[in-house]
Amino acid sequence: MPDNHTGYRISVVDQDPLRARKETRELLNALAEVDSTARLDLPEAGSLAGVGDKGGPSAETVGLLLNAGSFVAALVQVWLARVPQRTIVVKRPDGATLHVTGREAREDDTLIERFLADDDGDGTKAG
User: Fold this and answer.
1) Could you tell me the pTM of the whole model?
2) What is the distance between the alpha carbons of residues 29 and 25, in angstroms, rounded to a whole number?
3) Most buried among 22, 105, 113, 115, by the most CB within 10 A?
4) Residues near 77 by Cβ (< 8 Å), separated by ≥ 6?
């Protein structure tokens, strides 16, 4: 999977790639109004990224690329909190990643926003 985008990447983790795509499209629809640059991030044809990792293929298969802002982060947090069994991976341009579940999103309603705001380039504050 090419990793040369300039924005943030959010991946929906699911062992069912079709469900992951459906949920990613739902999240994209929710974000489209506040971030017109948000788009689906699908693998290149023939890519084997994540193959063999439990849950890996879907985490690497479907995601969103976006320009994050506090309102975008809040929308992602709200969307994730509605689905407590869902896990997403948020990746900053500096390579730092945050794995967060819907349950964690409910417990800490600013977790994603703080992670995105903490983009200082050294990747040391990732969760």
Assistant:
1) 0.71
2) 6
3) 105
4) 105, 109, 110, 111, 112, 113
pLDDT in tens, the chain (127 residues): 444 446 788 888 888 888 888 888 888 998 888 888 888 887 665 544 444 444 444 444 568 888 877 788 888 888 888 888 888 888 888 889 999 998 898 888 888 888 888 865 444 344 4
Tokens 């479907």: give the residue: 62
Q: What DSSP element (H or E) covers 51?
A: none
Q: Which long-range contacts (CB under 8 A, 24 or more apart) does 118-127 make?
A: 119/92, 119/93, 119/94, 120/94, 121/94, 122/94, 123/92, 123/94, 123/95, 123/96, 124/96, 125/96, 126/92, 126/96, 126/97, 126/98, 127/98, 127/99, 127/100
Which of 78, 83, 88, 71 lies closest to 32 in space, CA to CA?
71
Residue with tokens 């693998």: 43
